[in-house]
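User: Can you recover a sequence for this backbone? Please restate the input before giving your answer.

Assistant: Of course. Working from this structure:
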């Protein structure tokens, strides 16, 4: 990821804009539900997890909702994002550790290598900001941090085969933003909302990769039970499990 593109995530206005857009992601709740179903599939409790590129901590909140005694490590390089996560997960603060780290740098993993391995590592709308060669290495680094039987689940923005899928996704987000503006009595027109969405500061940071390619990487790295478990337009939930 180019440094200039990465830096936008350290700006509070960009964080606020992203969180507003995410509210319009189609089937967002279903994606999180599928993540939880994958983690629960083998009946093994999640006692220790990591939320990588945690943003405001929405995935961590979901894991804690299902496994309220679990302990989590939330990693992000954006302090405004970590501040959102700390505020939103205040009730679980004694069970959580918040780490400001940039996983585009291979050194990010060192502080965790001497610790007990994680039962699950989840990530949401984050790793797509890395170039392909780095994505694949990150998946290897994640595997090394998992205990045998531990899951990696990625709720992610991916590259579709057809432009129509991208268009349908973007129209869905814009429709949701327009509906929100109407509900709240806001002054913005559909044209203004569309222009703001198309010209958002973080757009240049997206480096989308087909989910099929990313699943192939996971298999090559030795993950088991690898599949795309959900897909809608350019959103996907894919996962793999470390068995050895």
């Amino acid at each position: 990821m180019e440094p200039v593109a990465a830096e936008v995530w350290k700006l509070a206005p960009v964080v606020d804009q992203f969180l507003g857009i995410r509210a319009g992601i189609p089937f967002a709740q279903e994606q999180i539900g599928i993540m939880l179903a994958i983690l629960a599939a083998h009946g093994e409790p999640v006692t220790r997890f990591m939320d990588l590129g945690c943003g405001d901590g929405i995935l961590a909140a979901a894991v804690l909702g299902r496994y309220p005694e679990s302990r989590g490590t939330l990693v992000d390089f954006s302090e405004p994002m970590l501040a959102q996560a700390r505020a939103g997960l205040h009730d679980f603060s004694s069970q959580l550790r918040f780490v400001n780290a940039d996983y585009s740098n291979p050194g990010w993993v060192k502080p965790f290598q001497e610790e007990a391995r994680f039962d699950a590592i989840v990530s949401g709308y984050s790793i797509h900001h890395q170039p392909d060669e780095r994505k694949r290495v990150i998946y290897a680094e994640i595997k090394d941090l998992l205990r045998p039987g531990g899951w990696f689940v990625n709720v992610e923005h991916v590259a579709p085969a057809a432009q129509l899928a991208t268009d349908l996704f973007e129209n869905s987000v814009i429709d949701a933003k327009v509906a929100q503006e109407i509900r709240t009595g806001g002054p913005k027109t559909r044209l203004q909302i569309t222009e703001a969405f198309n010209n958002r500061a973080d757009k240049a940071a997206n480096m989308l990769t087909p989910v099929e390619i990313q699943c192939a990487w996971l298999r090559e790295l030795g993950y088991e039970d690898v599949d795309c478990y959900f897909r809608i337009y350019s959103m996907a939930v894919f996962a793999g499990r470390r068995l050895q």
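That completes the design. The chain has one domain: 25-176+206-241.
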